[in-house]
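Quick entry between incubations.
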Amino acid sequence: MTDLPLLTAHALTRHYGNHVGCEDVSFDLYPGEILAIVGESGSGKTTLLNCLSCRMPASSGAVSYRMRDGEMRDLATLTEAERRFLMRTDWGFVHQNPADGLRMRVSAGANIGERMMAVGERHYGRIRGTAEDWLGRVEIPGARIDDRPTAFSGGMRQRLQIARNLVTAPRLVFMDEPTGGLDVSVQARLLDLLRGLVGEMGLSAIVVTHDLAVARLLSHRIMVMKGGHVIESGLTDRVLDDPQHAYTQLLVASILEV
Amino acid sequence: MADVSQKTRLVLQDVAKSFTNHLRGGIHLPVVSGVEFSLAAGEVVVLGGPSGVGKSSILRMIVGNYGIERGRILMRGEDDGEFIDIAAATPRETLALRCNVIGYVSQFLRAIPRVSTLDVVAEPLLARGVATLDARRRAGELLERLNLPAALYDLPPATFSGGEKQRVNIARGFLTDHPILLLDEPTASLDAANRDVVCDLIDAKRDTGVAILGIFHDEEVRGRIATRIVDVSGFSARKAA
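Done. Structure below.
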């Protein structure tokens, strides 16, 4: 167990005018840890994810991240170049809609290769070989390497987006409803894949989802959000099996059993 | 601490638990209070008392699945090791305890789509750093001992019968060498032959110094494996039940 956090949020707050996006959120994320942020639409979970991942400035509070050299840096103090380097190499961001995370007009292979080039890989054969290997790992036939994502199904696009994000071996991946909008069978395949890859690569991840079953399957720890505030947090199975807050009890009691 | 010896692995001190259901107007449901007992290496302690007195809840508290309101749940993996209170542990500490110190065979297997039986069973070994091939081989051997047909190993257990699922769950719990093992009615839906296998497995664990705490409704099984019975009725909030 490493005792130094990878990312620390301190009193993170984002207001939209008078409206609260998220307020006073603090937590530590450790290497290898998967944190799920759950709550219904409008609870502030995506706002929080965007503030954590430098995609949106916070109104107040701070996010610190442990760089590869071991130094903990306040993300607000990074230069634009440092921030972009971080986002392109050490972090991944998986969007709910794959079209937001992929380049739809270039081939599947180029989508993966582009991230590799961002970390300095220049050798065409190696790039193509790695891209092919990653297509296989996300269960896309290698023969589709030259096809554009526009020719892919929704599930394949989402798997391609995951390959594109993981090829640089990031240490932290942000995911915004990674299984939202997919058929359940496609969802199961994606979840199994994510679970395997995340475990294998020892990644840390922050996953926003409104699906408690996804949270149970993927995460170690849960934060439940309502009205921009974290109302309950803790070990995933404990929060789901012994929920304390009225709202968490309502969420858990609302799951349909098959 | 009272009555703690070198061999002590688990100590519950004045543990209390209740549920408050906010969806039903904040109704308060006490489960247990004043729970006190300990468990030593090489013991098989069976929790006794009728259904509904809180036996399963006690196991869930010990493994950190349920929070508690009062008391301490202290555990350690070796003689003279330092006790850790799982009731006060962080999520990360709780997961580390589950990985290394305390194993738990739940009443029902939670199947994960697409994950094969062999991988379900091997997973706790992989989490402890055992190589994949070795972990899968050991998983297969244990499943074979539990008479699960080899044709099922590559299938996800979601569609298995109750008894088959239970054997997968048992194999998963018994494959590792956790110093403390909790068993929630592992023999409930097994036939006599497989029940015997599970009893043998429990005996073998005890012989290697594992501390075992379980719930068994089957008198015969209980008589065969228990070294001591702790009656939970006295701690129950539903004494009349």
